[in-house]
Specification:
single chain; 264 residues; mainly alpha; two-stranded antiparallel sheet; two-stranded parallel sheet; 9 helices; 5% strand
Length: 264
């Protein structure tokens, strides 16, 4: 037993007395996030294959400019460098929300920075500075990115609605359901589960109250957010994987590689 007041010897990086496969989780996170980052960066710079009929990939939603019926402004601004895509502008907000997320912080601190690689495992740094100084104090902007993330839910829900209308062959639109419609709708569902289970939202709707007896509505909202928050890690990964699959699905349709089956 270490005497009271004595400091335990510092472990070297990766040293531990654990005999389980502690490295498996950070390795899985590293691989998973790396795949997403490589794919997302490729699609952002590709600036193509982001729409198919009424379908618009979430990576380019909202489509701020372009020669598309989905675009808010037609054409490309003359002053804008051609290598800048609409996705580069809008993805700052959902990416910022995820990068500063409480769950993802702990995940990529371990997987990419080894800080520490896992509980009771030696890390690279000699001291712990927390998130109260630069650069990690910037993580506190997560609560502000939350508002943008919620706004994006409405935008993506509108995209899912537009994905329910198909050309009728006579110059009009008719209601229908395709596989892509379901893909876009599930994307909104999974992103909602992740966003609405956010720790910051949980505090916003009632976490700062000492008692809930005087605000039953706040208590109900807090319970709903808490229910989602209890599975925040699952929602984080499901929504991340599905938003990537949604983009892949729309892009493959746009390339002509896949066929969108009409269900209704």
């Amino acid at each position: 037993m270490t005497p009271a007041g004595a400091s335990a010897a510092r472990r070297g990086f990766g040293q531990t007395s654990r005999n389980d496969a502690w490295w498996l989780q950070p390795l899985t996170v590293f691989i998973g996030l790396s795949i997403f980052l490589v794919y997302a960066n490729f699609r952002v710079f590709q600036n193509a294959y982001f729409e198919f009929g009424g379908y618009l990939t979430p990576f380019y939603s909202p489509l701020l400019w372009g020669d598309s019926p989905h675009a808010w402004f037609q054409g490309v601004p003359d002053w804008l460098p051609r290598w800048i895509s609409p996705a580069m502008v809008i993805l700052v907000f959902p990416a910022g929300f995820r990068f500063t997320c409480y769950y993802y912080r702990g995940a990529y601190y371990k997987a990419f920075w080894g800080d520490p690689p896992a509980c009771a495992v030696g890390e690279l740094r000699d001291e712990f500075r927390g998130e109260n100084s630069l650069p990690l104090i910037v993580q506190n902007v997560h609560r502000y990115f939350l508002y943008f993330a919620i706004a994006f839910l409405f935008l993506l829900a509108h995209d899912a609605w537009k994905g329910m209308w198909f050309d009728d062959g006579a110059g009009g639109k008719e209601f229908g359901i395709g596989v892509g419609t379901i893909v876009l709708t599930l994307n909104v569902v999974f992103l909602s589960g992740y966003t609405l289970g956010c720790h910051s939202l949980r505090h916003l709707v009632g976490g700062f109250l000492d008692v809930f007896s005087g605000s039953k509505g706040r208590k109900k909202a807090w319970d709903c957010v808490t229910c989602l928050n209890e599975h925040h890690m699952k929602w984080a990964w499901i929504s991340l994987i599905w938003v990537m699959f949604t983009d892949l699905y729309v892009s493959m349709l746009a390339r002509g590689e896949w066929t969108d089956w009409r269900i209704l």
